[in-house]
Amino acid sequence: ATMPPLLSAIANAGRHGVLVKSAVAMERLGEIDTAALDKTGTLTEGAPEVTDVRPLPGSGLDADALLTLAAAAEHPSEHPLARAIVTAARTRGLPLPTADDFTATPGQGVTATVAGHVVTVGRAARPASDAATVVEVTRDGTPVGTLALTDRLRPDAAATTADLTALTGTAPTLLTGDNARTAALVAEATGITDVRAGLLPEDKVNAVRDLERSGRKVLFVGDGVNDAPALAAAHSGVAMGRAGSDLALETADAVVVRDELTAVPAVVRLSRTARRLVV
Ligand code: ADP
Ligand code: MG
């Protein structure tokens, strides 16, 4: 028997390194007319590095002590920022005390008890002064310092946004939990003009729902736990697989297994071709 077009398209998507979970998911990819993208781990590589460690004067901590506190609290987290902070501490040879009572709040940060102190690492209250993502560390409710982290743009980020613009007729929207300044720099480098920053996971869902209420069929591409609700709400949700969280991979309609963002517009094209062949 000849393979039905949508099944052939799934096989072809596999050759592009994209796992499409069903024929329905394959079909919906070709129906999208709007794209929305997460920043960290989607347009950027999601492998940030700690570039600045800044204890607050009066905190009684030096840079190593601040990094140790933050890394101990972040140790159980799978977030890219957490992994970067733990790596920075290891690179400096800092031994990490174990953390108890760890909790992570998607899109916000983490809390844990370290050596009898309640430590949080998360969104900085004040906006960043440069391109870096800045996180604030508190100990027993008092701010003790900040860490700055920078992430590289994916080499194929601008080509992908250009291709999605060609496919949908509109530049993609950027939806990120990070600060407005970092988001603006990534948007500028990728030809995006519609930028929504400082979003909580539910704000990403609302942004997708707003677009869909105005009659759009939205493709949302993300990677984090914080992206899972928006991946579920979108007409078509695609997760970046390499560093993606389990929840994002489970929720998405398709997973980019080989780490190439250009595969996303490629599978939209495969779907459109297949749908023309379905009678
Ligand atoms: P994005 O939408 O860009 O992928 P997230 O929603 O995961 O980003 O995170 C948004 C912001 O919340 C981060 O920029 C950071 O300030 C804070 N944050 C989230 N998780 C953590 C964490 N594990 N440690 C420190 N800060 C975090
Ligand atoms: Mg992300």
UniProtKB/TrEMBL annotation:
It is found in: Cell membrane. It comes from the Bacteria. Belongs to the cation transport ATPase (P-type) (TC 3.A.3) family. Type IB subfamily. This is Heavy metal translocating P-type ATPase. The chain holds residues 307 to 585 of 643 of the full protein.
